[in-house]
């Protein structure tokens, strides 16, 4: 039985809208993307502001150290992203957590500094989180949620970020662990962030081989219960294998960065 014309028209329009909302990740994977960069940046700004209201920030030598590593990483972010300046904050919290948000916002918890024990390991974490931003994973997650969950107004929630809806948006953007909204990235997204982040840290002059030691530290620090950063970024053999395979490309990039004078010297 054929559909009435109006329903067929709506179906065609719906398919057209989905097709027009497709984008491509840095590694060539098709993605759903309903929202503009400006809309995502506004969500990121609101989420970061909310995070700042919930946790105290830390200054001094530790904050300067985190800023130094983040500055070196973000200096390698292509200008085409439209993010001219990244805001970086160190939050006082014992969980080993970090995040980056659309619009240029990076948060690191003090607990992470006990696990990422040198600048290269910290660069692996920050590079990975910035990789999520560059790969448009927040747009993909928010768009998918808006398309599949009836009644959720993502933009309305992002405007105030109050209540369960706002916390859910923060979780989708990647900053929800503080609120108990653990929304893991998919394995495909994780793999993309790993590889994009590895290239970023190498181009910035950080040793990409430190990423493997970071994951060993994460596992040793878990004591049976994974820290928040591992809960939202699950470690597995596939991840380690992917990182190792990428080193054949990342290590030469690291050597080229050093030859070009990019030699970060960040100290806590």
From TrEMBL:
Organism in which the protein naturally occurs: Salinicola endophyticus
Keyword Zinc: yes
Disordered: region residues: 223-249
GO-annotated cellular components: membrane
Cofactor(s) listed in the protein's UniProt record: Zn(2+)
Claim: Transferase is one of the keywords in the record: no
Family from the record: Belongs to the peptidase M48 family.
PANTHER family: M48 FAMILY METALLOPEPTIDASE, METALLOENDOPEPTIDASE OMA1
InterPro entries, sorted: Mito/Outer_Membr_Metalloprot (IPR051156), Peptidase_M48 (IPR001915)
GO annotation terms (biological process): proteolysis involved in protein catabolic process
Pfam families from the UniProt entry: Peptidase_M48 (PF01435)
Name assigned to this protein: M48 family metallopeptidase
Record-annotated Peptidase M48 domain positions: 63-246
Cofactor note: Binds 1 zinc ion per subunit.
CDD domains, sorted: M48C_Oma1_like (cd07331)
UniProt keywords, alphabetically: Hydrolase, Metal-binding, Metalloprotease, Protease, Zinc
Molecular function GO labels: metal ion binding; metalloendopeptidase activity
């Amino acid at each position: 039985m054929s559909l009435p014309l109006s329903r067929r028209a709506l179906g065609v329009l719906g398919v057209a809208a989905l097709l027009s909302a497709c984008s491509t990740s840095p590694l060539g994977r098709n993605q759903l993307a309903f929202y503009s960069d400006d809309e995502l940046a506004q969500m990121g700004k609101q989420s970061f502001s909310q995070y700042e209201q919930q946790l105290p920030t830390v200054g001094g030598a530790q904050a300067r150290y985190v800023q130094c590593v983040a500055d070196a990483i973000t200096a390698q972010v292509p200008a085409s992203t439209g993010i001219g300046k990244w805001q970086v904050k160190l939050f006082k919290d014992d969980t080993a957590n970090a995040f980056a948000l659309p619009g240029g916002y990076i948060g690191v918890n003090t607990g992470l500094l006990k696990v990422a024990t040198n600048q290269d390991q910290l660069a692996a974490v920050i590079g990975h989180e910035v990789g999520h931003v560059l790969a448009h994973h927040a747009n993909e997650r928010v768009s998918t949620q808006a398309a599949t969950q009836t009644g959720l107004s993502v933009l309305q929630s992002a405007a105030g970020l109050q209540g369960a809806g706002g916390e859910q948006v923060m979780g989708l953007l990647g900053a929800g662990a503080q609120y108990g909204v653990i929304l893991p990235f998919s394995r495909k997204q994780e793999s993309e962030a790993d590889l994009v982040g590895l290239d970023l840290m190498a181009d910035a002059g950080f040793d990409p081989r430190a990423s493997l030691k970071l994951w060993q530290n994460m596992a040793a620090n878990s004591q049976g219960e994974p820290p928040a950063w591992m809960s939202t970024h699950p470690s597995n053999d596939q991840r380690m294998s992917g990182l190792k395979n990428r080193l054949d490309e990342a290590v030469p990039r690291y050597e080229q960065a050093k030859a070009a004078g990019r030699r970060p010297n960040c100290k806590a």
